[in-house]
UniProtKB/TrEMBL annotation, chains A, B:
Record-stated family: Belongs to the universal stress protein A family.
Residue ranges of domain UspA in the record: 1-147
Entries under InterPro entries matching the protein: Rossmann-like_a/b/a_fold (IPR014729), Universal_stress_UspA (IPR006015), UspA (IPR006016)
Record organism: Paracoccus halophilus
Lineage of the organism: Bacteria, Pseudomonadati, Pseudomonadota, Alphaproteobacteria, Rhodobacterales
Protein name as annotated: Nucleotide-binding universal stress protein, UspA family
Annotated signal peptide: none
């Protein structure tokens, strides 16, 4: 019923639950699993906020560190799928606004299900604040499972 | 991976897509399917807004008509599951605020997945207006699939 499942994984506990459900769904349906870790790009912000020498360089270092953390998270998620016996799995990292990047990557890869973690905040708070999961369900053109 | 799946069905096109995904999920996992149609209770509102004789009676008639429509929708959904070859299906109707009634029924029946239709409105509109599906994903304590 699903052929390609995108799961957004950022290393949080909520994302880990989503990852495990996505792995189960992928195994059950025989779907390919696409792991996506989104990280924020900070260089330009840092550079524009500071006139001191080295700001751009520090921004680059920060970006590089964030990219490394994202890579590590994505690799962890991929390994988890492999350990669970599902080898149709690829892991990607992307930089950008989380919800829009998740949607864009899902479209680009031709995914027909997106799995995301809920905020983990109780009930109303999550709804009022507007979480990544709410944005994804609002923007997606395929089914979205919020775990 | 899921044992009891609740699908909210109100007769709309979006709910029909959700219903079909829920039936597929139920067949795939062997889960029981719980169809829920929520309708609004109008008698008290009608009665409180009007001092004219007969308002309560008219309210009762309106309720009765809405209940009949809900019953028909729930039965249609159940029949669709049966036709698809899934006989572990029950259909219920409830009155109340849609999102909260969906959540409460899911808890009461011990469901471990809730399937709802998205608003069908494009992207941002749906997100900003806050649909039933957004409320359900914000309030649920089990995974929610928005179709």
């Amino acid at each position: 019923m699903f052929h390609k499942i995108l799961v957004a994984y950022d290393g949080s506990k909520g994302a880990e639950r989503a990852l495990d459900k996505a792995i189960e769904m992928a195994r059950l349906t025989g779907a390919e699993l696409v792991v996506l870790t989104v990280y924020r790009h900070h260089s330009m912000l840092e550079a524009s906020l500071s006139m001191v020498r080295g700001a751009v360089e520090r921004g680059r270092n920060l970006d590089s560190a964030m990219r490394d953390v994202a890579r590590e998270a994505a690799d962890f998620a991929k390994q988890r799928a492999l350990t669970a016996g599902h080898d149709k799995v690829k892991a990607f990292i992307r930089t950008g606004q989380p919800a829009r990047t998740i949607i864009a990557t899902g479209r680009e890869k031709g995914c027909d299900l997106i799995v995301v973690g809920s905020r983990g905040l109780g009930a109303t708070e999550g709804y009022l604040l507007g979480s990544v999961s709410h944005k994804v369900t609002g923007l997606a053109d395929c089914p979205v499972m919020v775990v």
